[in-house]
Amino acid sequence: MLSALKGSKEEIPDELVSQVLGEVRARGDEEAQNANAAEIRQALETMKIMDVVRGKAGLGGHNLKDMGEHKFWSTQPVPQLGEGPPIDDGYIEPPVPRDQVQQEGYTLPKDFEWSTIDINDPNQLKEVYDLLSLHYVEDHDASFRFQYTADFLRWALAPPGYFKEWHVGVRVKSNKKLVGFIAGVPLTIRVRKNVFVSCEINYLCVHKKLRSKRLAPMLIKEVTRRVHLEGIFQAIYTAGTVVPTPVSVCRYNHRPLNTSKLVSIRFSFVPRTTTLARMIRTNKLPDALTLPIREMEERDVEGVANLFAQYMTRFDMIPHFNLDEVKHQFLSGRGTGDVVHGRREGQVTWTYVAEDPETHKITDFFSFYSLPSTVIGNTEYPVLEAAYLYYYASSASWEKSKEEYKQHLKVLMGDALIVADKARFDVFNALTLMDNVEFLSDLKFGKGDGYLNFYLYNWRTAALAGMEAIGDREAGRGVGVVML
Ligand SMILES: CCCCCCCCCCCCCC(=O)SCCNC(=O)CCNC(=O)[C@H](O)C(C)(C)COP(=O)(O)OP(=O)(O)OC[C@H]1O[C@@H](n2cnc3c(N)ncnc32)[C@H](O)[C@@H]1OP(=O)(O)O
């Protein structure tokens, strides 16, 4: 989510670091005497993440309230704040038979009505696009706002087996204007040892003029009812905001591609210790790819599916994609027509594979997607072209040699950056999930000031550590779901 978007600005304040350093030194033992500001800063950053995971007030955290203040979330089957890890993983509320699910839609305030959005109707798709492009997620100082394209939404909202009824709109009764939206799509996930069908919720949006009127809980309850009608009782979702209770939290990282534009639109800043020219030189990428990779094709679907399933076993929360889903996720967003400047008309996803020259088995793949943002109030550069790292997999084995594995991931992702650069993206974003922390700093990603919280609805499990919090000691143990 975009609360993420910008480069590092919001660090742990120096005064806090000095204060804690003073307190530690006052302990007087040898370890305390050797403590330094950098270690304290790092520890505080880690605490900040872990506290949010535990649902406590993180240092400088936003939107953190006591459970009782969450009028809506305190009524929902989600782990409540401060609850502590469960003894066993499992649902919070048992499933109910379809005929016991409320059959009629919830009653909206009198001026509004429900509307199921048909995303295959270009006019309705455009209505969703218009709502989101003016009212969806902005960063904390309203400089950037996600601008999901109609092509993107058509791709993201219609995976195999999707339910039209899960695309829920709210319209003004009198003029039919779309003022609220929430979407669900089915997704089979594994959380630690349990595999279950869930609903992936995204694109919750209420028109700016109708905020704080409790329409969001209505949208959430209505989509929940419609998901229950399909016999599905769990959901997965992400948000920049903290509500009860994150199962994990990851941090955004940003790799500048078009450095001068990023500085001009105030996405990045030139630190006092360097110059713009030096930053441009440092961020320049080579022209040639390192690995013999090529775009994924239809014939690769099975190979990619097998490699993906095998690779993802190392993470604790992952999607299970069948062949149709692999095809949809990695191929169906490739756009149409000829490639011009690294992209096709309407291209949403880029997927590249490497194959063994002898066996022709797929040995690696990576993918990223295009999610532009409006640069609010900027006429020279109205749009920030951002690529986001999506899924990847490699047959390089961590178990065999951790160093070789890390080097290999670095080369693979370095090629992803080169492909994105050729397709004229301005920045390449990635979260601290999967094994990303293994290559982020080496590939010159900078830490962003945004965190993304991961949530499960009606499922209890102990918190999954965000990779940044656990470091590489436990690489491969955390989140393996990438949400759009
Ligand atoms: C089994 C199937 C289950 C399916 C459902 C699973 C759950 C899915 C959950 C949704 C996953 C969404 C994933 C995404 O799309 S995350 C993206 C969310 N969208 C935006 O940030 C876009 C810009 N903002 C807006 O459009 C509005 O501010 C929204 C619509 C977000 C809230 O509208 P408004 O500002 O007018 O507020 P209200 O007066 O109506 O309602 C206030 C209540 O709503 C709770 N709230 C606010 N924001 C969020 C949020 N992002 N996740 C969960 N809850 C949220 C809030 O804590 C409070 O409850 P409580 O604190 O008092 O208890």
UniProtKB/TrEMBL annotation:
It is an enzyme of class 2 (transferase). InterPro entries: Acyl_CoA_acyltransferase, NMT, NMT_C, NMT_CS, NMT_N. One of its GO terms (molecular function) is glycylpeptide N-tetradecanoyltransferase activity. Residues 265-482 form the Glycylpeptide N-tetradecanoyltransferase C-terminal domain. Its EC number is 2.3.1.97. Keywords: Acyltransferase, Transferase. GO terms for cellular component: cytoplasm. It comes from the Eukaryota. Residues 92-250 form the Glycylpeptide N-tetradecanoyltransferase N-terminal domain. It catalyses: N-terminal glycyl-[protein] + tetradecanoyl-CoA = N-tetradecanoylglycyl-[protein] + CoA + H(+). Adds a myristoyl group to the N-terminal glycine residue of certain cellular proteins. Belongs to the NMT family. Monomer. This is Glycylpeptide N-tetradecanoyltransferase. It comes from Cylindrobasidium torrendii FP15055 ss-10.
